[in-house]
Amino acid sequence: MRAMFSQLGLFFLLSVLSLTPVMGTASESGSEYIFRDLMGNTLPTAKCLEKNEAEANATDQYLLKKKEKVFCETQGYGWHVAEVKDTGKLVCGECSDANVKGKFQCHLEDIVVACKRLKPGSVGLFPGKG
What we know:
There is one protein chain. The protein has 130 residues and is an alpha+beta fold. The chain has three helices and five strands, in the order H-E-H-H-E-E-E-E. The strands form two sheets. A three-stranded antiparallel β-sheet has the order 1-5-2, covered by helices on one side. The protein has a two-stranded antiparallel ribbon with strand order 3-4. The two termini are 45 Å apart.
C-alpha cells in the first residue's frame, strides 16, 4: 500500500514539474500590454482620531496597496497595478462635531497609479503565434 502511494506521489510530482516551464513561458513571450494612468483619492478615516493616529491610518502601506489595486480593478476585467507613480499628499481635516474637538480625519489625495492589462489578441488567440 505504501509503495502505491509513493509511486502516485512521484508520478504527481513529475507531472507538475513537467508542466511548470510551459505555463511560465507562455504568458511572458510575445505578450503586449495596454497602459493607463489613473489619479484618485482615498476616503477619510471612518472615525475621528488623534492627529498622529489619523495620519498613520491614512498612510498605512497595507491599506494603501489595497486601494491602489482597487483603482485599477475599477477599469474592468484584467486591469492590475503596473507601478505606483505618486503616493499623493496627506490631507487632514479637523472634525466639526462638538464631542470630538481636536480630533482629525485624514486621507491621501492625488495618488497616481499606472495600470496595465493584456492587449486583446496578443496572447493565446491565434494558434502558432505568441
